Amino acid sequence: MKRLLSRLLEALITLWLLATLCFMLLRAAPGGPFDTEKSAPPEVQAALAAQYRLDQPLVAQYGAWLGDVLRGDLGPSFQYPDYTVNQLIAQALPVSALNGGLALLLALALGIPLGVFAALRAGKWIDRGLMLLAGLGLAIPKFVAAPLLVLLFAVTLHWLPAGGWGEWSNLVLPVIALALPNIAYCARLTRVSMLETLSADYLRAARARGFSETRLLFSHALKPALLPVVAWLSPALINVVTGSAVVEQVFGIPGMGRYFVQGALNRDYTLVLGVVLVVGALIVAINTLVDALRGWMDPRLENDA
């Protein structure tokens, strides 16, 4: 319970610092949410500023916004006046979660078997070929991979739609674009960890007792070899979240990343802050779950903590 309360306090302080820093950076950026209304009469501009508290001192704006957040109200959107930030995030979060979750599952489903297979064939041509492909997957950024996938599978081959949302076929290319670098990194990480595990003393002793290689792999080597992969899940998820902004823009997906980019470009302060807070809370929760999973897989970590 003491450790849980400590983690909760750390999470709250982290989210407060994140929100405060983002608030100050947005206000320090040039321009404002209603710059296009400069041609409007002064009384209209004053009414807009009063409606969104932009006529108040910065400290008062921050205090009012923080009070609303503590009550669960992320405020109205400046650029989508018919919606609150809570409504926009409620619409976008399931979309981004579906894309990101499928991309991470695909990365694990392909990366772990490829890494294990490469480790079992270490030094052979198949191992070198797989690691070369993994290096290429890491080298190609998402903003290059996504348009290339559209060009190949949508424009040239006409196999899949180039964008949009609503059909399962719309998920294929975005999920692949998000998963590609994670597949590559997962395969490389699994290979290195498996090679290290296979050379451990306790596995040599098990071999001397006559255990089969299959039993050694699945009963004794796989679980400890996957510990670094489990630890990598946190940065992998952050990578998926940050990469979704580019992928959702390319494929026209109404997710969190797209709202974040549009909100930043339009100086929609409340929308950007809302997305940052929700994503930050998700990352903190995921880190806690990953730590718990690592502790279950290796009790020594819990004892050290």
UniProtKB/TrEMBL annotation:
Gene3D superfamilies: MetI-like. Residues 93-294 form the ABC transmembrane type-1 domain. Keywords: Cell membrane, Membrane, Transmembrane, Transmembrane helix, Transport. The chain crosses the membrane at residues 102-120, 132-156, 168-187, 225-251, 271-290. The keyword Transmembrane applies. It is found in: Cell membrane. Belongs to the binding-protein-dependent transport system permease family. This is Oligopeptide transport system permease protein.
